[in-house]
Amino acid sequence: MQKRAIFGSTSLPYLLLLPQLAVVAVFFYWPASQALWQSFLLEDAFGLSSTFVWFENYSELFADSGYYRTMMTTAVFAVMVAGLSLSLALLLAVQADKAIHGAGIYRTLLIWPYAVAPAVAGVLWIFMFQPSLGVVAQGIRSLGIAWNPLLNGNDALILVVLASTWKQISYNFLFFLAGLQSIPRAVIEAAAIDGASGTRRFWTIILPLLSPTVFFLVVVNIVYVFFDTFGIIDAMTQGGPSKATETLVYKVFFDGRLGGNLGSSAAQSVILMILVVGLTAIQFRFIERRVAY
Amino acid sequence: MATVELSSIRKVYPGGVEAVRDVSLVVPNGSFTVLLGPSGCGKSTLLRMIAGLETTTSGECKIGERVVNEVEPADRDIAMVFQNYALYPHMSVYDNMAYGLRNRGTPKAEIDKRVREAASLLAIEDFLSRKPRALSGGQRQRVAMGRAIVREPQVFLFDEPLSNLDAKLRVTMRLEIRRLHNRLNATSIFVTHDQVEAMTLADQVVVMNAGRIEQIGAPGEVYKHPASRFVASFIGAPAMNLMPGKIAEAGIVETPAGRLPYDKNRFHAAGEVEVGIRPEDIHAAGGADGILFTPELAEELGATRLLHGSFGDTPVIIAIPASGTVHEKKEMRLSIDPAAVHLFDKVTGRSLVR
After folding, report:
1. Between A239 and which of A81, A190, A246, B354 could a Cys-Cys bridge form, CB atoms 3.0 to 4.6 Å apart?
2. What is the pLDDT of residue A267?
3. pLDDT score at B204
4. What is the C-alpha to C-alpha distance for residues B106 and A93, in angstroms, rounded to an integer?
5. Shortest Cα distance from B144 to chain A (angstroms)?
6. Residue B116: its pLDDT value, please?
């Protein structure tokens, strides 16, 4: 049954909606349209005047090989962080779901990283892996592996991937655990009697029943790696060395804020927005069909 | 087809709760055995131990010739029907039934044959491509049974499979389960708290209370000769009337209803006892003799009528044919057949039968 309120006049409902609409307009539509407008403008070197240049900012971006490299870095980064944090979190959740003793402590410890601010997490990891001081770095080096995330681009990328993954695992873990606990025990028992081994039970029963959670987390994680990893990258590598860890969102900040190229930065953020909206739409269009609610 | 044999089975949960205490039971090959008892009596735990879903603290569980204590549920050659059906929600009815066979590597053609056979037996052929959520409760229950049948197991286990169905459907499904059992002739163990289900389905009723077996017997036997006060009060609706009594002399017991004769060849009693009389064993006496009874309330059940009243201070229910009219508050005279008087030990509650 739907609850409906009947209003005497049309103005009252609009009046009641006004605060919410105002918030959305001021904090979302206004900045978004500003960014869109800015992306068509070219500023002079001193920021005193700007000219309307149509799509020049965009065409310049697409002619720049550095931009494609950033896109590539972002893609690698996104796939690795989303893949790693989802699969590790699922593994941990499956194990935590089995725990009988101390399940509460186990859970609390696993959720903890989520409460750590991205910048703090970044500093933590850079300390551990700092080539000359880091505890872990020294361990790696003592094994005879060359490790220097400050100079080697691949090492740096591995490091930001690890930190970003570590940060996101808690969140994914929480949802996976809740999802696992909502699967009726009897269904799993029925599968056990039906002769499905532990792994077969996981792939044929548990994972399909968990698919709504997986789908939700994939969407959320894509948004996370594209936008929310900014803090970690900024704290750890500032996109370096030589832009090896520069993702799209970091380039937006770097070009706009540090480089002062507001037009290009705005164009990039518009592209990034379209990209993420597009990715999400694709997920809803194609993956959601395979989800068993 | 196999005999299930339990000897001295115990289940103690971590935390010390003893759910099943020293249960020994033989379920003969091909029998329909019902585990009956109130909730929390350990009947489901016992069933789950037979299925292998719970570990056994001590004792031995044998299916056929094999001790299965350490055997995985999948390898015990059993099938179970759960209370809430436990169908795989993301699979079609067909896949639900085929799942167990696929896991065992049964050839495709064989799977198809068996699934279709079971489906036609259960009249669910039209739903094979549907998902469980598109089915009604009764249809889901059929699918759950189909899933058990296709496996052709040695033992069927039923964990209160009818309690989620409405009253009318429950009666139909009850009959169908019995019919199916007669046809498949497999050993079945059925858990329920509903004594009507137990009485109608079982060859052998196992009445359980507080983790122990109170009585094992045929439905009629359990009803006519309850081995304890618990069985007497649990089986039969309305429950058996229980009242304190004292043996006056061999064959006569002193009760709030007066001096009642009992069968001294059946019961061996002395001193204080507990007297049990079924409501349907109390009849209206012809004349002015008999026990004085004042009905306070009448319940019409159609064929019979239940009268609530008391003998002295002891509340009593009697069941009489619903012919004629009864005036509440109007005294009546009742008679009790000596053969219908049961005597139980006042302390242990066991029947004092010789």
Report:
1. A246
2. 83
3. 93
4. 33
5. 10
6. 92
Task: Spell out which residues of chain B touch residue A209, defining contact as CB-CB under 8 Å.
Answer: 89-90
The closest CB to that of B104, out of A195, A205, A292, belongs to A195
CA distance A172 to chain B (A): 23
Does the predicted model carry a pTM greater than 0.80? no
Residue A153 vs residues A122, A254, B262: alpha-carbon distances, Å: 17, 18, 98
**Domains defined for chain B, CATH in brackets:** 4-228 (3.40.50.300), 238-345 (2.40.50.140)
Give backbone dihedrals phi and psi of A147, rounded to 5 degrees, phi first: -140, 115
Residue A5 lies in a domain: no
Instruction: Report ipTM for this prediction.
Output: 0.81
Sequence-ordered list of residues with C-beta below 8 angstroms from that of B261, at least 6 positions apart, any chain? B251, B252, B253, B338, B341
Q: Mind listing the pLDDT tens digit for each residue in A210-223?
A: 888 888 888 888 88
The least confident of A113-117, B128-132, B192-196 is A113-117
Mark which residues 325-344 of B lie under 8 Å from A by CB.
none
Determine whether the interchain pair B86/A190 forms a contact, defined as Cβ–Cβ distance below 8 Å. yes
User: What is the 8-class DSSP label of residue B42?
Assistant: S
Chain B residues near residue A204 by CB distance under 8 angstroms: 99
* Helices marked H in A112-197: 118-129, 135-142, 153-181, 185-193
Confidence of residue B215 (pLDDT cuts 50, 70, 90): very high
Is A10 contained in some domain? no
Q: DSSP of A108-125, one letter per residue?
A: HHHHGGGGS-HHHHHHHH
B104 touches chain A (CB under 8 A): yes
Residue A7 lies in a domain: no
Q: Which structure tokens are listed for B13? A: 């949960």
List the domain range (segments joined by +) for residue A278.
55-290
Binned at pLDDT 50, 70 and 90, residue A100 comes out as: low
Dmax (CA) for chain B in angstroms is 77
User: CA-CA distance, B248 to B87, in Å (whole number)?
Assistant: 60
Mean pLDDT of B168-196: 88
- Mean pLDDT on A79-85: 92
pLDDT, mean over chain B:
88
Q: Do A194 and B90 touch (CB under 8 A)?
A: no
pLDDT confidence of residue A85: 92
CA–CA distance, A133 with B248 (Å, rounded to integer) = 97
In B, residues 143-182, which contact A (CB 8 Å cutoff)? 147, 151
Number of domains present in the structure of chain A = 1
B327-341 pLDDT tens trace: 666 788 888 888 889
Whole-angstrom distance, CA of residue A159 vs CA of residue A151: 12
User: How far is A39 from A61, CA to CA, in rounded Å?
Assistant: 11
Q: Are B144 and B173 in contact (CB under 8 A)?
A: no
Residue A88 counted as domain residue: yes
The CA distance from B154 to A113, in Å, is 51
CATH number of the domain that residue A169 is part of = 1.10.3720.10
**Residue A268 pLDDT class (50, 70, 90 cuts):** confident
CA B172 from chain center: how many Å?
A: 17
How many C-beta atoms lie closer than 10 Å to residue A247's C-beta? 27
The pLDDT, as a whole number, for residue B285 is 76
- Residue A292 pLDDT > 70, yes or no? no
Å between A117 CA and nearest CA of chain B: 39
**What is the pLDDT, as a whole number, of residue A21?**
92
